[in-house]
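Key idea: predict the complex, not the pieces.
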Amino acid sequence: EVQLVESGGGLVKPGGSLRLSCAASGFTFSSYSMNWVRQAPGKGLEWVSSISSSSSYIYYADSVKGRFTISRDNAKNSLYLQMNSLRAEDTAVYYCARDGVEMATNTEIDYWGQGTLVTVSS
Amino acid sequence: DIQMTQSPSTLSASVGDRVTITCRASQSISSWLAWYQQKPGKAPKLLIYKASSLESGVPSRFSGSGSGTEFTLTISSLQPDDFATYYCQQYNSYGLTFGGGTKVEIK
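Result:
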């Protein structure tokens, strides 16, 4: 069974940093591109970042470019999101999500974690 | 980035109704479109990919159609479990973008 479990969320002050982690199991992690998608309270879904299976290709939304860094450790079956210079508008539930096709990018998202809440407030 | 526009934003319907949700892309995305269902406090669930392919385990009352810039999600006979918010998403190119969502409410 595919499982994605996020951790690392919490309350942080504006300008602060936070590192999210996603532990993956139940599939060959190193074969899939991965994503972070967020959802502000009461709002819709917003794609944040994607990373290919071997980390060769990395993409960011304009809203986080230069502040957030996505990475992965295939030996540890883990995905990360380093978030710096956090703003109030980054407050959201952050979902770790798997692409639906092995060894590909630009595919549908077929599995999602339960999400971790990041709150940016003084 | 490609803009995705969903309509309506809210839909009131009864059990047994046929429901259609529309998603429009600001430029052609071929058939690279997915539909997701989300219930309060839960992660989204994939329903349809490549515009019209039904994800494994999803009831056949859900169907998708369209290509280019116009897409629809249809629920042939609305069931109590279907009251939720639905999102379309294009994956033709990065940055990936979602529609604003359609909340299906009980009439």
